[in-house]
Amino acid sequence: MLVSLVLVLGARAGLSVEQIDDLAMALEILVRHQPQSAREASLEPCQGRLDVSLSNVDREWLHDRGPMLAVLVSEVDETASGVRLRVVV
């Protein structure tokens, strides 16, 4: 469901197909790490940008894989509750 929302909102924000695909891949990597964990997600589309926040992400795991995620999206930021991924046109 989350990937479907990323596809729609990414297109509305003006992201390229490649950017949307990379963001979906980053989200799959994050969710597969702890598939049974309850998470909340928020998506904030703006013209030329899409932010996706995901709660309940293991900080140590994120720290180890942050560089890999940074290849897929424009910015990876730890938040108080998890992580925010940002893709900018």
Q: What key phrases describe this protein's structure?
A:
alpha+beta
**What topology, given as strand order, has the largest sheet?**
1-2-4-3
Order of helices and strands: HHEEHEE
Q: Which structural class do the helices and strands define?
A: alpha+beta
Count of DSSP-assigned helices = 3
N- and C-termini, Cα separation: 23 Å
Q: Are there runs of 5+ residues with pLDDT below 50, and where?
A: none
Q: Globular, elongated, flat, extended or rod-shaped: what is the shape?
A: globular
Please outline the major beta sheet. Answer: 4 strands, antiparallel
Q: Strand portion, in percent?
A: 25-35%
- Provide the helix percentage: 40-55%
Mean pLDDT: 90
Number of strands: 4
The radius of gyration is: 12 Å
| Quaternary class | single chain
In short:
The protein has 89 residues and is an alpha+beta fold. Helix content is 48%, strand content 27%.
Plain-language structure description:
This protein has a four-stranded antiparallel beta sheet with strand order 1-2-4-3, covered by helices on one side. It has helices at residues 2-13, 17-33, 59-72; strands spanning 41-46, 49-55, 75-78, 82-88. By secondary structure, the protein is an alpha+beta fold.
What is the fold's blueprint, element by element?
Elements: H1 2-13, H2 17-33, E1 41-46, E2 49-55, H3 59-72, E3 75-78, E4 82-88
Antiparallel strand pairs: 1-2, 2-4, 3-4
